[in-house]
Amino acid sequence: MQITFWGVRGSYPVPGAATVRYGGQTSCVEARSAKGDCVIVDAGTGMRALGNKLLRESMGPRQYHVLLSHVHWDHIQGLPFFSPAYVPGTKIAIHALLTAADELQQVIGGITRHEFFPMPLEAVPATFDYHQVEPGVEFDLGAFHVTPIALNHPFGSVGYRIDCDGSSWAYVSDTAPFDRVLHKQHFLSGPEPLSDDDKTSLGTMREALVAKLRGVDTVVYDTHFLPDEYARFPHYGHSTPDQALDICAEANVRRLVLYHHAPSHGDEQMDQIAATYLAKGEAAGVEVLTSFEGMTLPIGTADPPERTNPGIGPA
Q1: CB 299 within 8 A of CB 167
Q2: pLDDT one-digit tens code per residue, 173-230
Q3: What is the DSSP secondary-structure string of 114-141?
C-alpha cells in the first residue's frame, strides 16, 4: 500500500510563490493497494489534479470511493472539479458521518448552484451515492479495511484507520486535542470551562483514538497550528505537532506525517517546522515527516518519500 498527497493545506488554498515547495492545495490523499485499488480521503482542491490523473489512467467509467472527514469547504471544494464526474457511467460513493450523509447532497449542490457554478451536481453524468459512517463501525472497500474514529472538531469530524496489504495508516484531520475544548454540535465563540461530563467525553474520545492508532505504521495528523497559534485559537478545532507527537508516541506509531498546514506558513517556515519536529520525533522514537504536494509514501516500509511531481516538494 502507498499514499500520495494531492493537497496538504487547511482552511483555504494558497498556491503561489510562497508555497511552491510544499504546495498550496487543500486536503486530499490517495491510497493505493498493491493490486491498484484506490480510496480517496477528503475532497479538497487537491482533488482536481488527482481526478485528472485518474482520468488519464482509466479505460472507461469506474467507481470511486471518497472518505470524508467532514464537510467544511477545504475538504469538499474539489468535488465539482473531479474530472471523472463528467464521464458517463462513473459512480462516486461518498462516505461520511450521519450529519454529513444527510446533508451532503444539499451541501455540494449548494456550491454548484447556478449562481456559483456552470453545472449543478445533479446534472453531471456521474452517479453520486452517500453512505453513513459511524465511529467504531468498521467496513471494507475492496482491499481496504476502514475503521472510522471520532474526532474533536466543530460540528463533528471523523478520522480513518485504513488496513491493507498487511499494513496500516491513519488519517486524523481535523481535530483539536482533548484537554481544553470539547466541540459539541455548535461552534463555540471561545474556550468555555469544561464540565465533568465534558472531561469524561474528551477522555473517552482520546482513549478511543489512541486505541485505534495503536501500532499503526503511519499516521497523517492535523498539525495546523504552532503552539503559540493554538493558544490564541484553541476553539478552531486543530492541533499542534507536539500534540500529534504525544498521541503517536503513546500509540506506538512508527511514523507521523504533519498535515493540514496553516495557509500562513510559507516554505521557509515549513522548513523550520519540519526540522524542529524531525528532531523532536527522534527523541520520542517516532519518525516525523512533513507532507508536501506530490509526496508518495510506501506504508509499512522505511523507504524515503518520493515525488509524483518533480516541481513540488522540498529539495
Answers
A1: yes
A2: 999 998 877 776 444 445 567 788 878 888 999 999 999 999 999 999 999 999 999 8
A3: TTT-SS-GGGSSSEEEEEEE-TT--EEE
Report residue 35 as a C-alpha cell. 493490486
Structural domains in the chain plus CATH codes: 2-305 (3.60.15.10)
Q: Cα 105 from chain centroid?
A: 20
Q: What's the average pLDDT block by block, 10 residues per block, for the chain (315 residues)?
A: 98 97 98 96 98 93 96 94 96 90 78 85 90 96 97 91 98 90 57 77 94 97 96 87 98 98 98 98 98 97 72 59
pTM: 0.94
Coil, strand, or helix at residue 159?
Answer: strand
Residue 187, C-beta contacts closer than 8 angstroms, at least 6 positions apart: 154, 155, 235
- Interior/surface letters 217-228, b for 16+ CB within 10 angstroms, e for the rest: bbbbbbbbbbee
Cα of first residue to Cα of last residue in the chain, in angstroms, is 25
Burial class of residue 123 (count of CB atoms within 10 Å of its CB; 0-12, 13-18, 19+): exposed
| Residues 6 or more apart in contact with residue 113 via CB below 8 angstroms | 120
Contact 221, 242 (CB under 8 A): no
Pairing assessment for the beta strands 28-32 and 2-7 based on DSSP bridges: antiparallel
Q: Are strands 218-222 and 255-259 parallel, antiparallel or unpaired?
A: parallel
Q: For Cα atoms 255, 68, 221, give the angle at the middle one, nearest 5 degrees.
A: 20
To the nearest whole percent, how much of the chain has pLDDT over 90?
73
